[in-house]
Fold these 2 entries.
Entry 1:
Amino acid sequence: MIPNAFDVGQARRRCLDWRRRILEVSQQVTALHVAPAFSCIEMVDAIYFGLMRKDAAGALRDGFVMSKGHGVMAQYVVLEALGILERQDLDEYCTAKGRLGAHPDYGNPGIEASTGSLGHGLGLACGMAYADRIQGTDRMTYCILGDGEMQEGSIWEAIMMAPNLGLSNLVAFVDFNDFQGLGRTRETHPHFYPVAEKVESFGWEAIDLDGHDSAGVVDAVRNRKGGRPLMVVGRTVKGKGVSYMENVAIWHYRSPNKDEYVQALAELAAAAAEIPA
Amino acid sequence: MRNTFADTFYEAGKHDRRLAVVVADISPAGSIAKFREDFPDRFINTGVAEQVMIGLAAGMAQRGMRPFAYTIATFTLFRPYEMIRDDLCYQNLPVTVVGIGGGVTYSTLGATHHAQEDIALACGLPNMAVIAPCDPLEAKAATLWCTTQTRGPVYLRLAKAGEPVLTETAAEPWEFGKLRTLQRGRDVAIIAYGPIMKMAMEVARNLEASGKSVSVFSCHTVKPLDRPGIEAALRDHAQVVVIEETAPNGALGMQVKAIAWEIRAGCRLDTFALDDAFHHVYGSHDELLAVHGLSASAILAGIA
């Protein structure tokens, strides 16, 4: 049974909207993590609109942990659209009167874990999924990791434990944008690859796919073999969707200036015009 | 103390399905083995992997459970310190981090197994409560409190096995966050926590033999510190002695000195702690403490 209707054209429009809204917020602050949010936007969108189930009252029944906390703008804009965060929250982003910071803060609406330090979210997600399993709830837990984050030893402790605990209710996504602080991961850590096979050898089901193909992500998760935790290795582009940001390291943490902002909006509008009605 | 913890936890866990224990490959002693057999879902062994031990406990607490993370103090606190800070303390979750062998309990195993800085490190964490019972009776009371509390994360510092009962005739019951009067005197106050209380009692007996009237306090809750209780002890006695089995920097002694300064206390105040050093000495617990300058005779000489 398909819990949510997932329309590819609508997903593309939504993801352009998420990018536009993030850029809008970027004009309120001198810096924010634009590119790390842009690379995982389709996966975040796929999770919230294609995978997570709602109860009768409309509340989300499944869990979501943004382990790569610096990607949280992608989650904030979705939570705003879902009415879980308010517009005012985004307007007051990173201000003393507001409640949203550059990293997720547990206790804020829709935020299930305080991350930002890398290597924490998967262990937390394992604990949540395990508690759900032994308490007999059918909740799923979704977790987004960064590829650089996967160099943390704690991630591999969690990767080892998840199948040992039988966490078939856990799906992790790797935002594989191939970028980290000091360069392209493929160049700095060539033996980090292949990732899906490594995770598979730890007892997970693993799928390698295009992380910007929302429908592909949803299909892959829905059609998984099951019985084990699933890792979706989504190949992505850092800064995806704005030409001058794609694979350019400075956009990890920087706000576009006025001209750059205008150009970025124009590119998003052009992309929107190409989506079939 | 370890077995008391296990028995107490087992009894509480029988009736409360939220209680779980997450261990990192330490041999389950006493009733923890029984808990494992009776409630396999609520006994999790991560293997030699302490970071995920804390992460799992935190995630389970976020889903309404009350996990206890349990291993040797160095590995339960030092190795996954940032997980304790971010996952437990920042998120303020009711998880009890149990450290077995606090201080230099494992005296023959070398400093890799000595949690000698644990009090300062645990007390440095916002939201963290730090409890160090001095005997099996306090360990039972503290464990019971941890199974029901909702205030946030706790570092429960235990020793190992075989500690003597010291508080059977205590003047006051155990209460979280309150300096506990074990015996009430007039001249000298001795403040201690953890199994080194046995040495503190020996110091008290010696002082009494020389005609002094001695109060003995168990500062089992090192954080939040019972400041009014400490202030009263400083005001009510001409001489105050703090004895603790932990590194001196950031320990109770420094805090008591700070309070004494702030209230302009008129008493004499001496503090005794482990050295700020790794001693490459292997022997009995008492022998290692003595190398650190902690013995009843050394303390008596120091406060004479």
Entry 2:
Amino acid sequence: MLPHDWTGTLGAFGRVALLSITGGAPKVRRGIAALCGLVAGIVVLLVGAGTAWGQPVASEESIRGFLRNEGEPVPGVTITVNDADGAEVGTAETDAEGAWEISVPGPGEYEVVLDTETLPDDVPGVVADTITTTVNPLQDKAVLFRGGEPGGDGGEEGGTPGTPAEGGTDTAQPSQIWQLVASGVRFGLILGLAALGLSLVFGTTGLTNFAHGELVTFGAIVAWWLNNAGLPVLAAAALTVVLGGVFGWAQDVGFWRPLRKRGSGLVALMIISIGVSLLLRYLYLYFFSGQRRSYDQYVIQSAIDFGPFGYAPRDLWIMGIAIVTLALVAVALVRTRVGKATRAVSDNPALASASGIDVDRVVTTVWIVGTALAAMAGVMFGLIQQVDYLLGFRVLLLVFAAVVLGGLGTAWGAMVGALIVGVFVEVSTLIIPSELKYAGVLAVLIIILMVRPQGILGRRERIG
Amino acid sequence: MDWGGITENALRALIGSEAIVFALAAIGLNVHFGYTGLLNFGQAAFLAVAAYGLATTVTTFGLPFWLGILVGFAAVLVLALLLGAPTLRLRADYLAIVTIAASEIVRLTLRSVSLRDTFGGSSGLSGFSADFYSLNPYDGEIGFGPFVFGPRDAWVLTVGWILVIIACLIVWALMRSPWGRVIKAIREDEDAVRSLGKNVYSYKMQSLIIGGMLGALGGFMFALAQAAVQPDLYSPTLTFFAYTILILGGAARVLGPVVGAMIFWCLLQLTAGALEGAVRSGAIPTWLMDTNQVGAVRFMLVGIALLLLLVFRPQGIFGDRKEIALDAR
């Protein structure tokens, strides 16, 4: 359900859940239990269903929720859904935000089982690990796992998903700001990889590629397949980036270049890219299914404390690799022949061609690099969240925002814009409800366009 | 395989409520994109604010139905002004990004938890359509051949197709007026129109408002046909479908979007029915496709159709290639 869920959980340090239902966890009553398991989290199941036409997901109903303990996400807990006959429908592991989702084949009665073996040691357990619930079409429903000692008064089924928004208005702690900035920087750096790819392609061809999000998803899914086939994550990631380059090359040579040769207009190309985006997205759904899945390494790591903020070792590696990659591309653009040729083509393709630059070769190179960068961003997003077929589409508009904010077609602008967008998205949750954080950054995008349409680093030229 | 049933469903989809909703959305888009050359990728937002204007007025605030319709139109007007003011001076690609961003802002706001009391969160609102159905003159089934509908559906279809006809007449009348000629001239060459002393910005804004209002009719029908509004139905996919329909039927033609919508939903229903039937009867082996994957295949086909249309026949069924603003910048 909710195929275009922009409010999806990005950034493992995000403070408030999509539906902040976890406020006011029940107090455990007795003695020592009260000490060690003071307030156990509640698992909230949101059961929903789509209506007939527009739910482009294979199975239209799914069960999902967030696992929290004292407001902290509980990752790595296995949750299984069985159908009425006891056959397993699907299983999921909560991600770094405690979120999980399992698609179910249709309306009906389901049994949701939380594997208490997989609960971390500091989480006291749940009163009942199995809850039976009915999934109706066109209905959202919340089911709660009560925290506490096993054998208590059991699970609870409610008609409304609890109390609204705990987030947004509470007073900000200084450390909270730093933590948000830290996860914003991480998000922004990954976004920068994707944005740089989009910006390079736009600069050289003028194409606003709406299928760029699917190139990001390509990375995440291919890496998952390689990982699932037995490769360690690092090897899978490296191979994925190479395959991303091959995919970019094939796309340009086999598809976009012939279209350019036919003289298709830019608006036509833009709408064609929407067709490509739909095609690729549902190809992923076809082969990957609607489930969220994780890589088998580096998923659960405890954060290293840096004083006001913390990063998991995984995050440090991701950010390091992203910075090195961005720097390498930047240096290549300034220093190397092909980089100079790329900038020349961006400035004026006809003039570049006249001065002996092979424009087609430059554009193909840009497609290779751009798609490889997008694939790398996909693997990184897959590592810090989970992999699903909408992963790239969810961040597409943020990538656009980053690119436009920095100045369409400028490589530096894309990087700066992405960092600003990343930090803004996370820090804005101090003021606005976190489910609106993407809306906030998109609103800022529109305002910036009114004031400075060429973006922060863009040159003043005809935009309007 | 039950070919009779599959064909019957496909024929019913030809005039079904989806065809109506998307025909109206695409008629509005036709004014924007087909006639004015505005690359509006936020049509879903116009449908959304119209539908929610109605639903919120009636369900949340308990006010009369007709006031809800007025509020819906007013909301569309406000949205068009808000959206147009910063964006109509922008180049086509910027306009596309900003409008799609605006439509996501609308959707995220409507589904936000903090506004659940007003807009109903991700499950939306219902219970606003009683007044609409109380006007229903039908009782019992209505129709002939495969086109037999229950009284509620028949009422939705009657009102819907009347609205489609009215919308087509409005577009036809507008586009043969002097105003329509200016609009089409803006699509062809904005600077030439400006040099004739016309206020291009103001004409574009009027076009955005009129197209939005026509889309609003689609929003009302969408809400009333389902007797509910849900935020995630108004996702960018809706806009993309409307574009596919518009280009399939032929942009800058009065009947293009209507024919496009009918064919689009008929074919979508036909492929879904045929694929599902083939999977069930074993004609397509399960290792290749199960019934869950049929949905994905349907949408892949939409993507392929959009792509092939633009590559090989950008004017669609009825359009004139010279009249499509595909080279604009």
